[in-house]
Amino acid sequence: MRFWLRKAGGTLLAALGATLLVSLFLDLIPGDPAAILLGEQAQSLDVAALRRQMWLDRPLPVQAWLFLEELATGELRSSVPPFQERVWGRLAEAVPKTGLLALLAMACALAIGLPLGVLSARRAGRAVDRAAMGLAVLAISAPAFLVGQALILAFGIRLGWLPIAGDDSSAAVLLPALTLGLALSALLSRVTRASMLEVQGKEWVLSARARGLSERKVTWRYAFRSAAVPILTIAGLQFGGVLTGAVVVEKVFNWPGLGTYLLTSIERRDYNGVRACVLVFTLTYLAVNLLTDAVCAWVDPRVRLSTKAP
Fold it and tell me: Which of 59, 156, 263, 299 could form a disulfide with 164 if both were Cys (CB 3.0 to 4.6 A apart)?
């Protein structure tokens, strides 16, 4: 219990630190946001009044505290005129979109990466292994926007199978999810291969094979379960890659998720919107890490023993 309480406390501190850090970065952006929003002909009194409304006249810790306070009470609004747009309303629209995209991307990565990594480990050094790992390196190296454009050209324009932008159709999420999932599956397949090769010679795997069990049962019930902890850890960390990669992919496919809201807030100098998006990204990433620790402890009893306090 003490272990998980420390994890939860660290999560809250990280969320506060992320809010302070993004406030610092926003403050370092050249130019006065109030003066930019009002234009060159604005009077100094009007600029000062807008700075007060945007909290820019307050110290950075005070700005972060006011943001968290109003966000918690549900009263937080955009920090640009006319100050009517509720941040919670925008988050309620954007977060499910990005959540759906991230879940489908991770499902795609697991469906491709795990079988490919296991197959490569079972055929280590052969042509199948070399071809699979070569494709993995290519998928990791290719930028997300380039992969997205290639998928749009192939499946959206040439074949006409899938929509290429927006969220008007339920199938519109497939191309952006595949764009994110391909890069994730490449890294996941390499980690799976390395983990499977490491446990292939372990005593319990050799013993299971000596008892005459089928190769499929030996692979998935004994070898894969023993290799699952590093695979799950990397998969959990990759979820952060899904969130950061979604910013680019959502822009390419015009998907109205959290990444699009973040870019729009940056363009509008809506600092409350930027802080809210970064906070959601941070909390989601940390929550997934907590969930990954719990799943690893459930899969491998050795992890449960290592988390017990001495």
Answer: 156
